[in-house]
Amino acid sequence: MRNPRNDNLALALRQPHVPERTCVLTRRKGTKDELIRLALGPDGSVAPDARARAPGRGAWIGVNRADLDAANAKGKLKPALSRAYKTNDVTVPADLGARIEAALRQTALDRLGMEARAGNLVNGTERIETAARSGKIHLLIHAADSGEDGRRALDQAWRVGGGGPRGMIFPEGRTILSMALGRENVVHVALTDPAAASRVAHALARWRAFTGPERGPEGGEPASGTGSAEADLTKD
Description:
The protein has eight helices and nine strands. The protein is of the alpha+beta class. Helix 2 packs antiparallel against helix 4 (96-117) and helix 4 (96-117) runs antiparallel to helix 8. The longest helix has 22 residues, at 96-117. It is elongated.
């Protein structure tokens, strides 16, 4: 006879343990993919570590930029970081929020560039539409200054191919999107590899979660219409 307790133990042993970190401001726990690491430099300066790879002591935050800026302005961030670093020799820049946002933005742009070089994405309306209708698209992205008609046509093609209800609107316009991919006049982008789509969605979700709700080019809701969860940005 099977022992349910043994079955549960075996299942737990097969699942990898994911260490949790704690936000220094809210005490909310999360994985390193959900929180943002702040590194302490040798001179006591605090800097964003978006990729969580910098050596030395680190502390974690799980709040958006508005909340971080408010805590920094009210003098609540420095003592929280001092406790986390276990030292009073901490210098918190007044523009830390802006630096974190810039780091997350660059991480997302770098990720798009890497996937482009690896051949995991396509651009151009006709190529995207063909791939979308064939069920080969796992993430659809529109530049913030893309036209409504163009977005609607590609969204429909994606739905026909079994994709999501709508693509997501990239936080930047076509100029920045083109620079990230090293291509000219990129208005729409589609990820054709599921793992690549997940990586891009994750980077964009972290950027968007820190800056706040993503807005459309005229201040409307995000094209994905699904909030900030990474899983909502990719095709099932």
